[in-house]
Amino acid sequence: MNELLSQPALQSSLIPFCAALATGVLLMAGARRWAGLAVLVGFYAAVYPIAGFEFAPLTSTRKILLLGLAAIPVAVVLDTLRRKARVGSGVLFWLAGAALLWVVWPVVQREELRVALALGGMGAIYAVLVTSFASDLAAKPRHAGVALLTMSLGTGGAALMGASALIGQLGLALGAATGAWLLLAMWKPTMGAGNTLTLPVGFLNALLGYGAFVYARLPWFALLPLGLIPLLVRFVAPDAKVASWRQTLWLVLLASPLAALAVFLSWQVEGAPPL
Amino acid sequence: MRHTFAALALATLSASAFAADSYTIDPAHTYPHFAISHLGFSTMHGRFNSTSGKIAMDRKGTGSSVEVTIATASIDTGFQKRDDHLRSADFLNAAEFPEITYKSTKIVFSGESAATVEGNLTMAGVTKPVTLNVGHIKCAVNPQSKKDVCGFDATAKIKRSDFGVKYALPNVGDDMALTFEVEAVKG
């Protein structure tokens, strides 16, 4: 069993997918508003075999995992208050930027001022934009699911090409968990996404992507198509006349090329993954 | 009387300070190596190409010490992509922890050419005690440079998981055999 659990492919796909699916089915039965939590349950179920749950010393990767956990109660509170994350909560996104700065601080603090400002500033802006773009999809479950699925898979794939199998696995696991949630959303179209899904998952994508740029070799420009995914998906209007699965498929076809582009760019610069 | 004691103390301190010979590590002849199991198929060897530090040699007293700083990013296993992976957050996280350091706490000589060095190894932000077994100590004048040189070989064994470097366990081994070839120039 231990040997099975130590297989990277299993850790990043089956474990998060099954955990998210099972949790989602349970939440749908009694607490549909929190169904987005299923993705986080699936993700952190995969975190245990991939990276473990130790937080000392507090390395950059552990900071990312900790911040993802911290985002959950914030999102739950927002959904409880039935508020849009953007309305009156602009400070939330700037906190996301500050959090990313905390993750990359060990590198930023050693650079000369000009480079530090660029590195830290770019990261903060990336976190702000990705988190807010993702949060804007809170009321559109299929859009949110597709955007976060493709963004996560793209982040994971690009990180894998960028010499970090660990961040790659985490991104792919997030994608697998989101995929499970999306399947449930297609089955039950009335299931909402909410901030519980979009805020922490969008935030984690920003942290993982930028973390792979700073601490591995993901090229910075590979982050651009990833950041555009939730923005692009947002402009596709839902159509009640079209079947749910068709709409989802269309959204996937729209968003996937951007994710593929990120992976391609990373592969072009860095070559094959470190296997 | 007080002045006499102070003078004696100062003289003793000065004497002990001069008892230890100071050496600066020669980066061109100092390389830490490691060996680790790769999926159980073979033992992968690698080394770090950039090392600096100081050694104090005091065979007659307790003033001997070793302080070594290794540039994490200088890891070299002969394959660029693997080296990039080892530098990443998955393993040594060179961007966050640019140095691996070893500082001795106690050195015990066994005869002329062997010693045991107890000290602390700091890697990936974690510090653990590690003992080096030192053999083949030679201190003499280098016939080419005409400088006083001390050199030795040292070995140690660690578990990378003790330092929080746990990615890909157990496929990539936990046990690491360390070998150090060290030369240091007096001054």
Task: Summarize it.
The complex is a heterodimer of chains A (275) and B (187). Chain A has 275 residues and is mostly helical.
Notes on the structure:
The complex is a heterodimer of chains A (275) and B (187). Chain A has 275 residues and is mostly helical. Chain A has one domain. Helix content of chain A is 76%, strand content 0%. Chain A is built from twelve helices and no strands. Chain B has 187 residues and is mainly beta. Chain B has one domain: Lipocalin. Helix content of chain B is 14%, strand content 53%. Chain B has two helices and eleven strands; from the N terminus they run H-E-E-E-E-E-E-H-E-E-E-E-E. Chain B has an eight-stranded antiparallel beta barrel. Residues 11-17 of chain B have low confidence and may be disordered. Chains A and B meet through helix 9 and helix 10 of A and helix 2 of B.
